[in-house]
Amino acid sequence: MPEDSIQHINFDELNQKAISQPLVKHIYTADPSAHVFNGKIYIYPSHDIDTGEAFDDLGSHFAMEDYHVISMDSPTSEAKDNDIALQVNDVPWAEKQMWAPDAAEKDGKYYLFFPAKDYDGIFRIGVAISDSPTGPFKPQSQPIQKSFSIDPAVFKDDDGSYYMYFGGIWGGQLQRWRTGKFNTENSESPFAHLPKDVEPALCAKVAKLTDDLLEFVEDAKDVIIIDENGKPLLQGDTERRFFEASWMHKYNGKYYFSYSTGETHFICYAIADNPYGPFIYADRILNPVVGWTSHHSILEFNGEWFLFYHDSSLSKGVTHLRSIKVTKIEYDENGLIKTINPYNDLKVLS
Ligand code: FUB
What we know:
This protein has 350 residues and is mainly β. It has a single domain (3-349), classed as Tachylectin-2, Chain A. The protein is built from one helix and 21 strands. It has one helix at 11-17, and strands spanning 28-37, 40-48, 66-72, 80-87, 94-96, 102-106, 109-118, 123-130, 138-139, 153-156, 162-166, 204-208, 221-223, 225-226, 244-251, 254-260, 267-272, 279-286, 296-301, 304-311, 323-329. Strands 5, 6, 7, 8 and 9 form a five-stranded antiparallel sheet that branches. A five-stranded mixed sheet has the order 14-18-17-16-15, with no helix packed on it. The longest helix is centred in the N-terminal third of the chain and has 7 residues, at 11-17. The radius of gyration is 18 Å and the shape is globular. Beta-L-arabinofuranose binds at residues 30-31, 46, 62, 99-100, 150-151, 168, 244-245, 293, 295.
């Protein structure tokens, strides 16, 4: 079970060994979804704040209220905070907890996709639109129909189709939707309704988006991850199975689905020949960072590949006060990503 708070770490040593430093330090930021629009990098992170909300395994302490867009000319240049892009009070259907967002561009318009709890305490995914990648974004009056859970990641395929990958277990409520309807029993327990350890793991979801990017064209499907023997990963396989933080990118014509393993704190990936999978488990991309959560995105910029991620080093280990970072990714000759250790010669124990 996760502990809130400060891990017992020498933060001076950790910061010296860290492979990268926070991109911005004047606010806490997390869950970075990075994109290149018009040759520039735009990062859509969560904006972490401390509201005094008590820590629990439902993630109630992640009580974020708005989004800021961060922009950079290149992965090594200064990161600029473009101020508030969307505020929870401006979203008619959303009450609280603006968790990990993503964005997409189509025909010169920019779409911010974001999860938040509605007034029934159910996570839904909304869309807000702007003429600028930095916002301000104008929200739709209702969430996407048939959307649920958290952590939307929107991927544009080469044929111009857009897909949303999403979902997260425990506080992300994915396990409450197993029958297709939201299960309200044991509402205070993040562990109720999970599959047994020997059963196939709960899957992230994928749905193709309509041409206007405002709705799903289909009911969301399972993103199945299989092992080397073609069997779906099991719920008890906590070092490999999906927990939250979906991302999709394409490398050499293959589809790479990456995600967090939650309580074991890895970012892992699995590969398929099409956007729906099944995906074959490949390996870890990122070893555990300081803090409980791990979340990422993967971006190509001028022919090089980068991992945007976060840790809680700036807040000295406070779970819900994180900072976004970036580092380079390398692929081997077989298209496998070399596992990254976020702190040279220092392992954060999961
Ligand atoms: O930021 C709130 C939640 O923490 C995100 O939605 C999860 O992916 C985790 O990073």
